[in-house]
Amino acid sequence: MDRITSVGARGRKPASPKTVDNYRRRYENYVGPRWAHTPVASVRYDDVAEWITSLKGRDGRPAGITTRREVGLYFGRLMGHAVKRRLLPSNPAKDPAGQTDYVPAREKQRDHVYLTMPQLTRLAAECGDFELFVMLAGTCGLRWGEITALTYEDLDLGLMPSVAVRRAYSEVGGKLVLGPTKGGESRVVPLPRLVARRLELALPAGSLSTRIFSGGRGSALRNNTWTRRHYTPAIARAAIQDPSFPRPTFHDLRHTAVSLAISSGANVKVVQRIAGHASATMTLDTYAGLFDHDLHDSAGRLNDALSGLGWK
């Protein structure tokens, strides 16, 4: 666990407090009870496969697909680290071909919801005092923990306005912990000028270290509480005006920001920065469908350019 905290699972950078807590819980709830007293040299592939296939929670009920997948992958990485430390000649959690057939495939994720700009502005307006909060999320793609950790010191409201994303809140054991962003990397995200202007008007007279968005008595916002009190009612009010109005989660505002950036012609490196992905490949894999649509838009723009030159 010390290694995860200091350099992360891949040995590159410290893990976030939430990631560390997830690893700790997986070990305490699943790995420890089964393997804590087993010498690593005695771990066998068939035993690992049987364990994951029949994995149960602390309540004795069969574990779900997501849990079995996460625990299986975690244990495989743990055994892989033992190989790196030369405690084992090969990873016993993998078969001779390097496969882990017992690890369930990832469950199909809920489809992303992409709001149009009119839908985003309507939803933001329905959020009242949190209008700017929703607009920033829907145009800059920040995660919940990132946007709630922002202070006015993170803003650059000059000729090319931007926001520096340096840290994020994670909920660990029911408490909010301020730590690094997901992936441990800081990034600078461009701000639409109109959003930057609203932020400039909200600049405090006192310390710039003040959080931009806070709850009652200046406390850090909590996702569940804010969603229940402000976000869900705002969606319901928008649906009264438009029964076909989508039902986006807050995280869908992040997807919306990416969609709006792509539709405006942003290149993949800009979209990668907005999304905070480790690589442009990850961005393309996550939003491949949006870029496929952009290919046709690109052809249309080329066609318009040719028409403007009188080419037939």
The second-level CATH architecture of the largest domain is Orthogonal Bundle
Could you tell me the CATH topology label of the largest domain: hpI Integrase, Chain A
Strand order within the widest sheet? 1-2-5
Low-confidence stretches: none
Would you tell me the overall average pLDDT? 87
CATH superfamily of the largest domain: Intergrase catalytic core
Question: In oligomeric terms, what are we looking at?
Answer: single chain
- Kindly report how far apart the N and C termini lie: 66 Å
SSE succession: HHHHHHHEEEEEHHHHHH
- Range of strand content: 5-15%
Secondary-structure map:
Elements lengths: L1 H6 L9 H19 L9 H9 L11 H20 L32 H10 L4 H10 L3 H4 L7 E2 L5 E4 L2 E5 L2 E5 L7 E4 L2 H9 L21 H19 L9 H13 L4 H8 L4 H7 L1 H21 L4
Antiparallel strand pairs: 1-2, 2-5, 3-4
Helix pairs in contact: 2-4, 5-6, 5-9, 6-10, 10-11, 11-12
What does this molecule look like?
- The chain is mainly alpha-helical.
- The chain has 2 domains: 2-84; 117-299, hpI Integrase, Chain A.
- Helices cover 50% and strands 6% of the residues.
- The chain has helices spanning 2-7, 17-35, 45-53, 65-84, 117-126, 131-140, 144-147, 193-201, 223-241, 251-263, 268-275, 280-286, 288-308, and strands at 155-156, 162-165, 168-172, 175-179, 187-190.
- The strands form 2 sheets. A 3-stranded antiparallel sheet has the order 1-2-5. A two-stranded antiparallel sheet has the order 3-4.
- Strand 1 and strand 2 form a beta hairpin.
- The N and C termini lie far apart (66 Å).
